[in-house]
Amino acid sequence: MEIDVEKLKKKKTTEELLEFGIINIDKPSGPTSFDTSDLVKKTLGLRKTSHFGTLDPKVTGVLPVALNRGCKLTGFFIGEDKEYVGIMRFHEEIGLEKIKKVIEEKFTGVITQLPPVRSRVKRQYREREIKNFELIEKEEKNILFRVACQGGTYIRKLVHDLGEHFGIGAHMLELRRVRAGIFLENDELYPTVNLFDFEKVVEEYENGKEERLRKIIIPGEVVSKLFPVVQVKKKYVEKVLHGSPIFYDFLKKIKDKDLANKEERFCAFSGDRFLGVFEIEDKDEKVFGKAMFVLQPLSEEERKR
What we know:
The protein has 305 residues and is of the alpha+beta class. The protein contains 10 helices and 16 strands. The strands form 2 sheets. Strands 1, 2, 3, 4, 5, 6, 7, 8, 9, 10 and 11 form an 11-stranded mixed β-sheet that branches. Strand 15 and strand 16 form a beta hairpin. The two termini are 36 Å apart.
């Protein structure tokens, strides 16, 4: 079944949204992703925030930032596909059709990348999938392009390697992320918000006007867009929230199509109440799934923070 996230959002208070939500920030050129996430945290007075996928300081665009307990969702979103629009510059004149042919043959599909020297990850070759690499327009040595790729792909390195293939060199002039998984630049329900407007929205909220802040917060339950949803019987909710695996007996009737998921993960709900993200257990005939993340009720101590 599918969860109506927008309908669920209307039932929540603004404080509940801030406790388990996401804001889709339009990151400007300059600050790091961490700086942007930290600004959201301090401006809203939250306990913690985290972003779903690092952007280089000069790169702009879609940067989803999780709020408070929404940070527990980072691992589920961070590896999702990304999409970018950018400008690359070849160091010598070269024909567009020639570049397109090489992209189709060697830079589309599964490729091997060595992370840049300045990256924070271990420098070892790894495979990444380029879903689409489109050349949109050429002006002298500059080319406007669009890339859809697996999360963790280095676009700057992709451009560099393309230039190296021709033996003339190339570098990236500009880059903007327009999609990070299910989060889009121009989404009708949850569009990106730039930092200037974000700070104005929070100022309005502090002065008693919460409408615009509510509009830009995405409920954490949006994780149900990534995985199948199963329903847990109400009488077993407390057991699940306090550490019990989900037994087959706990479930309302499910259909095979609800679990057509290669990662073998699912979201558990009871009605429209989100319980957590679980992993299917195939080694136990009685246990259906074990918890990866459970959204337990806030303790009194957490409520006071």
